[in-house]
Hints:
three-stranded antiparallel beta sheet; mainly beta; five-stranded antiparallel beta sheet; YopX protein domain-containing protein
Amino acid sequence: xxxxxxxxxxxxxxxxxxxxxxxxxxxxxxxxxxxxxxxxxxxxxxxxxxxxxxxxxxxxxxxxxxxxxxxxxxxxxxxxxxx
Length: 83
């Protein structure tokens, strides 16, 4: 099971207090998923303060020395270096 955040693209806000965390194929609070809701998957990465990174979060890439958006592809996490 993968942890995700639920983001309302119309209202530009996370659903619920501090983002509604749901587990795919698990129990969660009910909400209607439509074209204005984006699920952001947990990348399995954390920063030095133990804060979790989710897909589409913006972070600093020390290797490339740029800010980038976190992307999940085939189970791997990386930044695109374009944000």
